[in-house]
Amino acid sequence: MALRELKVCLLGDTGVGKSSIVWRFVEDSFDPNINPTIGASFMTKTVQYQNELHKFLIWDTAGQERFRALAPMYYRGSAAAIIVYHITKEETFSTLKNWVKELCQHGPPNTVVAIAGNKCDLIDVREVKERDAKDYPDSIHAIFVERSAKNATNINELFIEISRRIPSTDASPPSGGKGFKLQRQPSEPRRSCC
Ligand SMILES: Nc1nc2c(ncn2[C@@H]2O[C@H](COP(=O)(O)OP(=O)(O)OP(=O)(O)O)[C@@H](O)[C@H]2O)c(=O)[nH]1
């Protein structure tokens, strides 16, 4: 079975739950006292998608402002960017639009963009309505669903959808899977925000 390595980065304000999403996906665990990320952290997980193995190389960036300038190192070369906001904090939704603009201007072409409205277990104190939030990702053809790292809601599904949006390779690599070309499927735009 062919193995593909897919670099994925997570972007978004501090405290929105980027690391928690990664931990839920990779380790199926949740830590209510998780520490803020310093610089960035890296984890991998391999999953089967159709007749391929997808090895996600996940760069979880730090949301604190003092690390902001490091982000390009992680989104460059990414097949997908997961931009996270937190449904109980309106300002984190505004910040994500800035990330999308930056990716459009400086990110790699054809990056799959996924917008994750995290902490959907906190609906009683939500500030961002799901229906209002949905218009924006729809307008840029981004993946969008609300999720909860705490309750494991829609976390695996996020990565399955990323796998689905990344076109299959025209030629399978012999093994190890590095350095082969991604082909664009014209029928399904991967990003159209620019
Ligand atoms: N209720 C709830 N809390 C969550 C959820 N996801 C994360 N948290 C909590 O939110 C806080 C911040 O989570 P992190 O995963 O560290 O957030 P981050 O975006 O990685 O933060 P930085 O590393 O500073 O960029 C922690 O206390 C988590 O336990 C969720 O889905 N629901």
UniProtKB/TrEMBL annotation:
<keyword id="KW-0967">Endosome</keyword>
<keyword id="KW-0547">Nucleotide-binding</keyword>
<keyword id="KW-0472">Membrane</keyword>
<dbReference type="GO" id="GO:0005769">
    <property type="term" value="C:early endosome"/>
</dbReference>
<comment type="similarity">
    <text>Belongs to the small GTPase superfamily. Rab family.</text>
</comment>
<dbReference type="GO" id="GO:0030670">
    <property type="term" value="C:phagocytic vesicle membrane"/>
</dbReference>
<keyword id="KW-0342">GTP-binding</keyword>
<protein>
    <submittedName>
        <fullName>Ras-related protein Rab-22A</fullName>
    </submittedName>
</protein>
<dbReference type="InterPro" id="IPR001806">
    <property type="entry name" value="Small_GTPase"/>
</dbReference>
<dbReference type="GO" id="GO:0003924">
    <property type="term" value="F:GTPase activity"/>
</dbReference>
<keyword id="KW-0449">Lipoprotein</keyword>
<keyword id="KW-0968">Cytoplasmic vesicle</keyword>
<dbReference type="InterPro" id="IPR005225">
    <property type="entry name" value="Small_GTP-bd"/>
</dbReference>
<dbReference type="InterPro" id="IPR027417">
    <property type="entry name" value="P-loop_NTPase"/>
</dbReference>
<dbReference type="GO" id="GO:0005525">
    <property type="term" value="F:GTP binding"/>
</dbReference>
<dbReference type="Pfam" id="PF00071">
    <property type="entry name" value="Ras"/>
</dbReference>
<feature type="region of interest" description="Disordered">
    <location>
        <begin position="169"/>
        <end position="194"/>
    </location>
</feature>
<keyword id="KW-0636">Prenylation</keyword>
